[in-house]
Amino acid sequence: MSKRTVKRIAVAALVVVLLAIAALLQSFRAAPLPEPPALTGDLPPASPPAEMALFHLPTGITLRSAGFAYRGGSFSDRREFTMSAVLVQHPRGDLLIDSGFGRDIDAHFRAMPLFFRATTSYAAERPAAEQLDAAGYRRERLRGILLTHAHWDHVSGVPDFPGTPVLVPAEERAFIEEGGSLATVARSFADTRYEVYTFDGGPYLGFPASHDVHGDGSVVIVPAFGHTPGSVIVFVALADGRRWAFVGDLVWQLEGIGERAERAWLLRALADHDAEAVRENILKMAAIAGRFPEIALVPAHDARGFAGLPRM
User: Fold this and answer.
1) Band (73; pLDDT cuts 50, 70, 90)
2) Do residues 165 and 136 touch, judged by C-beta distance below 8 A?
3) Per the database record, which ranges form the Metallo-beta-lactamase domain (predicted)?
4) Residue 212: which of 100, 32, 84, 92 has the closest Cα?
């Protein structure tokens, strides 16, 4: 092979690399999803008991940037991504939405893939179980741990609640068993008792089906598959009229819904099971936010969403 041929091949390879880098960088630029059709109809009815209450249990943070979280975000906009659990008190049985970082978070982090550990730093706070114990909470009140999805930072605290059922749809139960490295931590909990529920209710705010946990409209789960095969959104209503939508990792920061901004291509490829389904569910939530701005949106890692919730 002549020197001229080798040089041409090298130049062509360099061009390909530069084009790939340019395409990657372009995927981080702002590109709002199309505006969804307007949502019609009224808020679904709910009859939450007066005794219901919500409490935020922050368990730690990871250090990220807005650019990491959504297309168009600035990489100089440094943010603390909260890792949290939320206690939902209800006379028919309390629920913990996700579990946040647990007592063994260091070991759970070490179980994650090398590339993830190399690009992630975290700081652990008091685990949810210890916060509840310190507040004098009676564990027998806990009906179950309701996962928005089964990634490491949402399940780390599960072993701190031995014997407490973990509520998931069948799709997420299968993901825990078959989901590769992203489900490694959840799969390592040998003694976890899973309780699989079905979406046995009708459409809810544009989602095709729902599951009403207590039968009174106070805690309603809808399928939002995409980030993982069985990701869900949890809608909660209190007796005073306030409502929340706990969207898990559908988006990592509020701008994901407010600006209809999905994750950049690289993050979608690494983190999302079905990026197109995530996109569709972002638009559903954007339509809900436009029709019912009184519903507080709570991405699992955006501290602003938890601002209205008291701590134990």
Assistant:
1) very high
2) no
3) 82-301
4) 92
- pLDDT: which is higher, 6 or 212: 212
Torsion over CA: 252, 253, 256, 261 (sign): negative
Calpha distance 109→112 (Å, rounded): 5
Q: Is the confidence at residue 3, as pLDDT, over 70?
A: no
DSSP 1: -
Q: What is the model's pLDDT at position 24?
A: 56
Q: How far apart are CA 220 and CA 4, in angstroms?
A: 67
Judged on CB neighbours under 10 Å (0-12, 13-18, 19+), 311 is: exposed
17 token code pair: 């690399």
Strand residue runs (E) in the chain: 53-65, 78-89, 94-97, 122-124, 142-146, 166-169, 194-197, 211-212, 219-223, 232-237, 243-248, 295-299
